[in-house]
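Hello forum,

I keep getting stuck at the same step: I have a sequence, I want structure tokens, and every attempt I make locally crashes halfway through. Rather than fight my setup again tonight, could one of you with a working pipeline run this one for me? It's a single chain of 350 residues.
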Amino acid sequence: MTKYPPGLRKSVNPRLKTKGNTLENPSSLLLRLLLSASPYYVSGSVLADRLKMSRVGVWARISKLRKDGLLIEASQNRGYRLSAEPSKYNRPLMEAWIHQVQAKCKIFVHDTIDSTNSEVERLLANGEAGPFAVISNQQSNGRGRLGRKWYSPTSGNIHISVGFRPNVNLIKLRTFTLWQGVCIAELLRSFSANKSISLKWPNDLVVNEKKIAGMLTEASINSEEVRTLIFGIGINLNSSSKHFPKSLSDNSTSLKDLTGHKQRTHELSAQLIKTILSSYKQCADNNNKELFVKWGKLDALSQRNIEVSNGKEIIKGKAVGIDNDGSLKIKSRNGRIRLVQSGEVSVCKW
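Reply #2:
Ran it on my machine without issues. Output:
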């Protein structure tokens, strides 16, 4: 369980527009009312009035949510408040948080799935309109960059993929992954109050050279036009690196490790989806000048000696930022600048 702010001894009537939400799940709406009032209580009569049901009906829904793992406190003469959430995704709570952060995005929530990116691909193939997000507690075959498998434990981490139908020229989205990295790094810094979270080109978020998140972008392109776009991200959230496989534990960390306490999965996931949608628009607007400024402040490789394995070639030099297309700029010992569009980057001590 992850706790919410301590309750205050007061009952309020949340200012929340509920009219016209005839398709909204009543449980999601109930939770949205509690979230809007947090850390205060909402009386049963107010909930009944806003939900257009009896107080017995409200009590029944709260009982069902409690059985699903949510901790909802009840206080005589005050009402109800949400005090803790489960470690696994709860669909009504996730929908409530999506409304709370005003992210206009349909969501699909799973307990376990082969890969969130694969599910987005299937939904796009079946005609699902974008944008939409697929979320899962666990992945049996999570995909990482360069064909690697992404470690996906039963619960505690975030696995989210978002599907788009851009139908725009490829050039408009050439820096898409970098834009996502910048905006997500800023979000994680703010959410965790940790300013050491940075970016390792092209798709990793790191803290002191330990990986905390990875991104994977896949696209369907026809005649230089991006038809479908899939962005997936995995974040080590409430798991502990000491429980990771030996091959990962020395080079990985999590937000829980950084902060010393569990993070609210649903809130961060909703904020993350909102950020992904926003940075997609920023990239499409093609304001790369702003991207370069932001990247420079978050670049974990800046002015460091690196090696890039690019197929059979190994390129050595000093990382000196990115160019207009998002390629990594490497300065060799003779002063020559080389551009790398893809490859495996290692920091060197030579």
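Residues 138 and 154 are 5 Å apart (CA to CA). If your local run keeps crashing, start a new thread with the error log.
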